[in-house]
Amino acid sequence: MPTITFDINDLNKLVGKKLSKEKIAELLDYAKGEIEATNGNEISVKSSDTNLPYLWSIEGIAMLFKGLLGLEKGLKTLKVEKSKDMVIVGKPVKDVRPHIAAFSVKGAKVDDYLLKQIIQLQEKFCHSYGMKRLKAAVGVYNYSKIKFPVYYKAVLPESVQFMPLGFRREMTLGEILESHPTGMEYAHLLKGFKCYPLLVDSNKQVLSFPPIINSEHSGKVLSGDSELFFEATGNDREAVQLAANIFAFAFAERGFKIRAVTIDYSGRKEESPASFKDSIKLKADDANRLLGLSLKESEVKQLLEKFRYGYEKGKVLIPDYRRDIMHPVDVIEDIGIAYGYDKIPARALKEYTLGGTFPITKFVDKARELAVGMGYQEIYSPMLSNMNLLYSLMNVDDFGTVEIENPMTGVFSCARTWILPQMMELLSKNKNAEYPQKIFEQGLVTMKKDLRDFERMSVVTAHTSASFTEIKQALDFIMNNLGVKYEIENTVHHSFIPGRVGRVVVNRKGVAYIGEIHPRVLANFGLGVPVAAFEMNLSDLFEIVKKK
How far apart are CA 146 and CA 104, in angstroms? Predict the structure, then answer.
């Protein structure tokens, strides 16, 4: 979880009120944060909420504290001045890193302490919310060294040279990825692309090589600078816009004036920073029902304003530095926090019930215990996966997948439909471990048809002599101990070797596939030993056993 460090005197100055460490600790509870360490006037605060990156800065904490203390009331808005500054986005860059947001600031001065706070927020946001610069990465520059318009484009790796931050010689983009410490750390973000993103101004001076490194010329902010240029780039449009908004609000808290920048996407123009103007409908009765309270609408309004929301006749206005509100329940949670969960009166239980284990859970657990008894090691994988792993690498077509409309990352872009691909991925990451490797996993999969979840179990053996016979012995052991008789019918499954794959049938219903993994699949995962496996639908098998 992100931890930030700041000076208490600076916090008090931003809030406009002197706060003791005890009071700060009390207010941090509302922000799901806690004091982790103190050193004189310096304090380190750990945040436990990864959905509220605006609180990863002292400026964001000050904005919330002012609302909680009643020093400021209601929706926090951002005053943005117009400007003629523009970023022109080239079409080719959309295939590499398509989104950008930007603004500039003036009117205050940067000192060493503020510079550290800017860098701290930059690092925390990019590493956590920005998913190590994949979703979003930000850059801050000396505005006076930039000639607008700025161009955001894609270029060949060896076609441009510039002096990266912290170096004293010019390097090509390819050289930066190969020999610059930051370039080597984030080179994987551009792996496989023929062209790389670049920000240059109208004087052809390089600003930065996103998301890798700024230039030494304009990308180095120093104490005493009073005009700055900010940009955020990434693969996630919402995350990029949110980054710009959070930093703009932070600079505004410091007394800077925020100036807009126009983003020109080949004729389609956007003003940045963006105003989301998000709102959500909420009735006081809904909050009372979930929280067990009897709040009036005016009281709901007051509690929301503490958290810097606006409220107009049943409509909650959401600050532009927040993108975590997806449902009225999210807002009701903040109402409960603002009210104080410790103040909600306890109620006696009206119904008394005894807990118990579902019969299918007992059935599933027995299958797991049998696999463990054979010497197979249990693993746990995420229920989210991706189409490439589930199908392309396994040499099969999509057989009905629930995909996420706006995934945070391509690695977790859909619900898994079977477990075996994740088992293969694990084997590929343990190629240097000792063989034999015998593993299994039991868990839920989701099928698009009827949007149903099924309990499945995948059992895998990998070593130089792994075979159909060995994996069938494992299946025999489990089925015999579950009291199930089965048959194996010839079938075709392109993840398995033809002639060495079968469909496991119980009472005329297919409940599993079993066989030796196809060499093409082994090659896709970089495996050099045979693999045999079966995957069983425990939900279907349980229904069959239950009817006996």
Answer: 11
Can you tell me the distance from the alpha carbon of 206 to that of 212, in angstroms, rounded to the nearest whole number? 13
pLDDT over threshold 80, residue 255: yes
Tokens 């979703």 -> residue? 135
Sign, Cα dihedral of 491, 492, 494, 496: positive
- Edge-to-edge, what's the strand order for the sheet holding 310-312? 279-281, 315-317, 310-312
* SS3 (DSSP) at 309: coil
State the average pLDDT over residues 132-153: 96
- Distance (Å, whole) CA 8 – CA 354: 51
- Dihedral sign (CA 171, 177, 178, 182): positive
CB 302 within 8 A of CB 334: no
Phi, psi of 257 (to 5 degrees): -90, 135
| pLDDT tens, residue by residue, 48-102 | 878 899 999 999 999 999 999 999 999 999 999 999 999 999 999 999 999 999 9
In 226-273 the beta strands, taken as DSSP E runs, fall at 228-234, 257-265, 268-272
Instruction: Return phi, psi of residue 229, to 5°.
Output: -115, 135
Residues 64 and 61: their CA atoms lie apart, in Å, by 5
Phi and psi, residue 536, nearest 5°:
-115, 140
Name all domains of the chain by residue range, CATH numbers in brackets. Answer: 3-68 (3.30.56.10), 80-272 (3.50.40.10), 279-341 (3.30.56.10), 359-546 (3.30.930.10)
CB 439 within 8 A of CB 426: yes
Query: Is the per-residue pLDDT at 2 higher than 90?
Result: no
Give 53: exposed, middle or buried? Use CB within 10 Å, 0-12, 13-18, 19+.
buried
Closest to 394 (Cα-Cα) out of 528, 517, 532, 515: 517
Q: What is the separation, in whole angstroms, between the first and last Cα of the chain?
A: 51
